[in-house]
Amino acid sequence: MIKTLTTFECTYLLKRNYIGYLGYIFNNRPYVVPITYYYDDIENTIIGYSGIGHKIKALRNNGLVSLEVAEIDSVSNWKSVLAHGIYREFEGSSAKINLHKFSERVKDVIKIKEGKHLSHISEFSSKIFKEGIPVVFQIEIEELTGRERQY
């Protein structure tokens, strides 16, 4: 049986994960790419970062996006959330603050979910800067839907 998740269940799934699939449109074609993210439950936004490339160019052109996050144990045991929202970029000191918050929050989720204490999060942060100044962005969530199947 497939059940609809409540808003609380949807946000809980977003909070306890850090990898999702970002959907966007570029040149009238849909694209879906994996991203690392964190869910800011206070602001009800998804925070991410990227170098300037195909994805960022597309998102600057059309800011309507979706993010899908799933936990799949088997074909008959899974949960999935789809967040629809609007892409916005942070600038200046706000971008730096949110990039730091992103690094710390992802580290926290990995520690809780996987039991790993990441000493390499600093390597992760320095890698971000070695590849050039990243674009730090948020997705302002407008709608959340979720489904679950447990057999």
TrEMBL record:
SUPFAM superfamilies, per database record: FMN-binding split barrel
Gene3D superfamilies assigned to the protein according to its UniProt record, in alphabetical order: Electron Transport, Fmn-binding Protein, Chain A
A Pfam family matched in the record: Pyridox_ox_2
Designated name of the protein: Pyridoxamine 5'-phosphate oxidase family protein
Native source organism of the sequence: Litoribaculum gwangyangense
Lineage, top ranks: Bacteria, Pseudomonadati, Bacteroidota, Flavobacteriia, Flavobacteriales
